[in-house]
Amino acid sequence: MLIEFSVGNYRSFKEPVTFSMVAANLDSKNPQIDEDNSFSVGNNLKLLKSAAIYGANASGKSNLVKALGFMKWFIINSSKETQSTEKIKVEPFRLSTETKTQPSLFELVFVMDGTKYRYGFEVTQHRVISEWLYYVPNVKETKLFIRDSDQIEQSKKYQSNNLKQFTRSNALYLSVCSQFNVDLAEKILNWLSRTLNIVSGLNDTEDISYTLRCLEDNNLNDEIKQLIKSLDFGITGINIRERDFLPEFNFLPNDIKEQLKSFIEEDNMKGVKMVSVGTEHQVFDEYGNLKFTEEFNLNHHESEGTQKLFALAGRLIMALKESQVLMIDEFDARLHPLISLGIVELFNSKDNNPNNAQLIFITHDTHLLSHKIFRRDQIWFTEKNRYGATDLYSLAEYKVPNDAAFESDYIKGRYGAIPYLGDLSYLINSNG
In this protein, which residues make up the domain named ATPase AAA-type core (predicted)? Predict the structure, then answer.
């Protein structure tokens, strides 16, 4: 379960940008929403099941997603997929003379196996500046290890068999420990791999493949199909078919054939399969009687919205079943507002989300800005300040009634985080 994520130039005068899934202590006029949309972890921690992030274009929303994606990738791969001479793929904030030379900070607070952890690091493009891991065994936070440049200090609880000598300056100690089978490090990397999922919302290729793999599991097949049929009423069934790739290869343009041959020999294509997805639709006669079903090809005949729904279906079902954290950029792109609402309601439901999965999404869909859907602490905004830096803040920071007209007030600019348009009338006048 995700608690908090922070990113920023830590050693500057600016505080890191922090996103939190910790439920605030709100005086609510809708206790049912409060109860459905949050859950307790132990006696002292209450978390949210979902959160929406709003803001103008270029306000930093997607950068938050990219930062978390980089952090996940770097933790998992820095010790095994990078070389000692490679630069770390971070970029400092370039609109300040002070932060331009400062390291970038990333920190994650999460719950794994019922225990709270806080892990983070500071990096430049050339090296890891610092790294730390803490946990809360009872009440007080306790150090597991601290790294300052090449110096690493660790507690007896963190048994790593002195792996400092194997830790490159551009690799994380936690990642190295996982490579050498340190139990806690392996568990944390496994948690990141299996529990924290980040989806672009625009590029469906990888997510469609994920849904197809999920459909091979009989325990997930029916649930994924039911989800798609429930959210897209025109579809009555889904068929998955495999066929040999080699006959299809012969009909490809020559330039594409040559590109494929550079990756795979033609003899090896005999074992390659192509997967096609068919969607069933009912066909009626002129009297409204059902006659038969017609199969459409998902890629060729269905709308982009239906294709995106299919792409997300596997991620959504797995998140709900496995208590995962799902973060989606451009959530509302190509989806009807009612489908977006249906997905949000799945996560904000005790019946459909008994394992307390968490959904975090970037959106411009203001129809979701309602006290009948969200608590105030589930609504977040990004806005660039006068210096070009992103501010991230929650609606819970505003002194507004819990039953206020969130959507209307947001459009009016009461909470900020909206685009400011210049005078466009001259465009019309100049062509008059």
Answer: 51-370
pLDDT digits (tens, 9 = 90+) for 199-257: 987 777 888 888 888 888 888 888 998 998 888 768 888 888 776 655 555 656 776 66
SS3 label, residue 230: helix
Q: Which residues of 286-303 are buried (b: 16+ CB within 10 A; e: fewer)?
A: eeeeeeeeeebebeeebe
Measured torsion, CA atoms of residues 315, 341, 355, 195, in degrees rounded to the nearest 10 = 30
| Triad 89, 58, 203: Cα angle to 5° | 65
Q: How far apart are CA 170 and CA 79, in angstroms?
A: 8
Question: CB neighbours (10 Å) of residue 223?
Answer: 18
State how far the Cα of 399 lies from the Cα of 403, in Å rounded to an integer.
Answer: 12
Tens digit of each residue's pLDDT (9 = 90 or more) over 23-35: 988 776 677 888 8
CA neighbours closer than 13 Å in the CB half-sphere of residue 274? 9
Domain ranges of the chain: 2-198+342-411, 209-322
Q: How many CB atoms sit inside 10 A of residue 271's CB?
A: 9
Q: Take residue 261 and report the two structure tokens written for it.
A: 């041959």
Q: Is 325 helix (H, G, I), strand (E, B) or coil?
A: strand
